[in-house]
Amino acid sequence: MANVALAVGYAMSGLLAPPQLPLVYQSVYLQPDLNGRQWVENVLADASRCFDNFRMQPANFYRLHHMLTTYYGLESSRDIHTKEALGMFLWAVGTRQPMRQMHERFRRGLGTCSQMIATVLNVMVQFADDVLRPRDSTYAEVPDELKEYSPLFDGCIGAIDGTHIKVCVDEAFHDDFTNRHGWRSQNVICVCNFNMMFTYVGVGTEGSAHDMRVFKKKALMDGKFPQPPKGLFAKILAGCIMCG
Asked: Which of 38, 90, 155, 196 has the smallest number of Cβ neighbours within 10 A?
């Protein structure tokens, strides 16, 4: 009986003891993660990583940061610097990251991540309203790029085209945003000049909408749409021409 009791006790102690890790795992130790500000600074120090994560070169990031903080009211909070907030926004929209991944990468609460995205987005909308417009609404000067093609494009002030951008929407709106290719999107219309600079971007239209309906809706109802002056026109890449 004594031998049986000893055997049972030995077996139970073996079951309750913590498992011994192999030697290859015993040398592994956790290193502290970089916080959001440190990660952004490390990315900005490498031009290649900066473009991969923020979709722009470091010089452009610093230039954009300066404009948003100086002219558009982007401010640091008690916990988050404006540079981290801008990096968070650019990383999320440039690489299509969900809120959970932002929480994991920047070690911020989900509510904080959502608030920062909304804050930077509101500032970016103001910035876009100022830059996405013709420099000269009268189009008094003929673009140098067109002079060699005169008179074929005399009076042409730019080009219009559309594209589909993937979106995530509530299930109730899936049918409205499902395009003819079978995936959900916004049907976006863009106008650019001959310096390849955008003068208008119209977003928000359901992906199921026809291109011409998007064009008519934005041209007639959006006050920011750059209407050509009388006698000038914008070339629509689908083959139509919008005349003033």
From this structure: 196
Q: Are residues 150 and 239 in the same domain?
A: yes
Domain tally for the chain?
2
pLDDT in tens, 223-244: 888 888 887 777 776 544 444 4
Task: For residue 232, give its domain range.
Answer: 144-243
If one counts every other C-beta atom within 10 angstroms of the C-beta of residue 152, the result is 8
3-state secondary structure the chain: CHHHHHHHHHHHHHHHCCCCCCHHHHCCCCCCCCCHHHHHHHHHCCHHHHHHHHCCCHHHHHHHHHHHHHHCCCCCCCCCCHHHHHHHHHHHHHCCCCHHHHHHHHCCCHHHHHHHHHHHHHHHHHHHHHHCCCCCCCCCCCCHHHHCCCCCCCCEEEEEEEEEEECCCCHHHHHHHECCCCCEEEEEEEEECCCCCEEEEECCCECCCCHHHHHHHHHHHCCCCCCCCCCCEEEECCCCEEEC
How long is the chain? 244
14 belongs to a structural domain: no
What predicted TM-score, i.e. pTM, was given to this entire model?
Answer: 0.72
